[in-house]
Design brief:
This protein is of the alpha/beta class. It has two domains: about 10-205, Vaccinia Virus protein VP39 (Rossmann fold); about 215-289, rRNA adenine dimethylase, C-terminal domain (Helicase, Ruva Protein, domain 3, Orthogonal Bundle), CATH 1.10.8. It is built from 13 helices and nine strands. Strand 2, helix 3 and strand 3 form a beta-alpha-beta unit. The model is unreliable at about 1-5 and about 285-289 (pLDDT under 50).
Length: about 290
């Protein structure tokens, strides 16, 4: 384990000594469970040849282990106060760079210098989806991601057709996710009210289906999920702003039963539907009126 200036002090004691408080607005629940740290390290298969981007290092309990096991660690911490504390605590670690930045806006290629990397993150609940999407959709996505999120979010990520969601599609387009373990509230300080989960995502070299316009693809997926409890013909009609008859025609041309719901479609079916929508001129709202 890498040396740490804080010894065995509890998270509460450390925060009090530093005059720092957990910020609710930033969703700060600091990881304190060593068993969880081991689960994350094992899932990420960290080795000396790895560059690790860690998002949300907090008080550094995982960062200490990462700098001991990896070749290079880049810790991205939005809270500038915590970023300073972490850099001071692990000042002797020659392979650590602490970046005080919002991970949702970070220049991913700039962080790593364009090098291959693994993403390890304890994601704040309120920003989990945009942070993960930012990295997966970047020009330089990770080769592997091991993230901690709320249990329900993890289950959404790993859902199969029949229970899919917009998040399922968004993650599974880029990689194969699986839950490697659940994390009780007691593994954090302060304790959240919900159970978390560790998810490993084996990121594909290329998206799971061939797309030349990802923006259009997700526009169609969002339209389909705009009313997930409705049949696709109605959800698509409302989401795309077209008459129900036009939505029926789009689904028919795609070979998709209009009575199905968005949660039942596979990635390939979404791709087919997005291509049909793009190739079929839709009436403008003025024409509908």
């Amino acid at each position: 384990m890498a040396a740490s200036a804080h010894g065995e002090a509890s998270p509460k004691e450390r925060l009090e000594r530093l005059g720092v408080r957990a910020k609710k607005g930033l969703g700060q629940n600091f990881l304190v469970g060593q068993d969880v740290v081991r689960t994350i390290l094992t899932a990420a298969e960290v080795s000396r040849g790895d560059t690790i981007v860690e998002v949300g290092p907090g008080l550094g309990i995982l960062t200490q282990e990462l700098v001991a096991a990896a070749g290079k660690v880049i810790a991205v911490e939005m809270d500038r106060e915590l970023a300073r504390v972490l850099a001071d605590d692990l000042a002797d670690a020659g392979n650590l760079t602490v970046v005080a930045e919002d991970a949702r806006e970070a220049d991913v290629s700039g962080l790593t210098g364009g090098a291959s990397y693994k993403l390890v993150a304890n994601l704040p609940y309120y920003a989990a989806s945009p942070i993960l999407r930012h990295f997966l959709e970047s020009e330089r996505p990770p080769v592997l991601a091991v993230i901690m999120v709320q249990r329900e979010v993890a289950r959404n990520m790993t859902a199969k057709p029949g229970e899919m969601s917009l998040m399922s599609v968004g993650v599974q387009l880029y990689g194969s996710p699986r839950i490697v373990g659940y994390v009780p509230p007691s593994a954090f300080y302060p304790q959240p009210k919900v159970t978390s989960a560790v998810v490993r995502i084996d990121v594909y070299p290329n998206p799971a289906v061939d797309l030349d316009d990802r923006g259009h693809f997700f526009d169609v997926v969002r339209a389909g999920f705009s009313a997930p409890r409705k049949q696709l013909r109605n959800a698509l009609s409302g989401g795309l702003g077209v008459p129900t008859e036009e939505a029926l025609a789009l689904l028919s041309a795609s070979g998709i039963d209009p009575q199905r719901r968005a949660e039942s479609l596979s990635l390939e079916e979404w791709r087919t539907l997005s291509l049909v929508v793009r190739e079929r001129p839709l009436p403008s709202r003025s024409e509908q009126e």
